[in-house]
């Protein structure tokens, strides 16, 4: 099994997107955060992403945080169905949040009904497990 066919592949090098990134304040010591400002890769499945943050450890992509706005709970179900079809493991965190393991990548999806937005975070499993709460703060 391989990584899902998404625009940002974990472990790819910074140079793949360096001219389409704006530096953000780093969330974690030893990791660098960037906002994707390019025009071609602003999607997740059929959804347009409002914000895409890439987190690098050195030159290698470690995690991706996608924010999808103007969505509803049904849209979360579409995303989760896609992930569960490919997952070797699924954990229901709560009614509106789930974790999935696909190949060697951990995915987390969560819906915020007040903001009408979905957050999808994916990356190296140990990194996601250790830093998920920090990653959820925007």
What does this structure look like?
The protein is globular. An 8-stranded antiparallel sheet has the order 1-2-5-6-10-9-8-7, sandwiched between helices. It has a two-stranded antiparallel ribbon with strand order 3-4. The chain is an alpha+beta fold. Strand 9 and strand 10 form a beta hairpin. It is built from 2 helices and 10 strands; from the N terminus they run E-E-E-E-E-E-H-E-E-E-E-H.
What layout of secondary structure does this protein have?
Blueprint: E1 21-23, E2 32-36, E3 43-44, E4 47-48, E5 51-57, E6 60-69, H1 73-86, E7 89-94, E8 97-102, E9 105-112, E10 117-123, H2 125-136
Antiparallel strand pairs: 1-2, 2-5, 3-4, 5-6, 6-10, 7-8, 8-9, 9-10
What does the average pLDDT come to? Answer: 93
The level of helicity is: 10-25%
Evaluate the radius of gyration: 14 Å
Pick out the low-confidence regions.
none
- Along the chain, the helix and strand elements come as EEEEEEHEEEEH
The largest beta-sheet arranges its strands as 1-2-5-6-10-9-8-7
Specify the biggest β-sheet. Answer: 8 strands, antiparallel
- Quick one: how many beta strands? 10
What is the distance, rounded to the nearest whole angstrom, between the alpha carbons of the first and last residues? 32 Å
| Beta-strand content | 35-45%
| Total count of helical runs of at least 4 residues | 2
Which descriptors apply to this entry?
two-stranded antiparallel ribbon; alpha+beta; 138 residues
């Amino acid at each position: 099994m391989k990584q899902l066919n998404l625009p940002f592949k974990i472990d790819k090098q910074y140079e793949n997107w360096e001219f389409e990134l704006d530096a953000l304040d780093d969330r974690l010591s030893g990791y660098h955060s960037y906002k994707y400002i390019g025009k071609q890769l602003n999607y997740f499945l059929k959804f347009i992403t409002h914000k895409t943050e890439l987190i690098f450890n050195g030159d290698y992509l470690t995690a991706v945080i996608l924010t999808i706005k103007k969505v509803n709970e049904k849209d979360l179900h579409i995303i989760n169905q896609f992930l569960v079809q490919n997952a070797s493991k699924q954990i229901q965190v709560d009614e509106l949040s789930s974790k999935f393991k696909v190949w060697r990548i951990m995915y987390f999806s969560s819906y915020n009904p007040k903001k009408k937005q979905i957050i999808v975070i994916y990356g190296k499993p140990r990194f996601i497990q250790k830093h998920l709460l920090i990653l959820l703060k925007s």
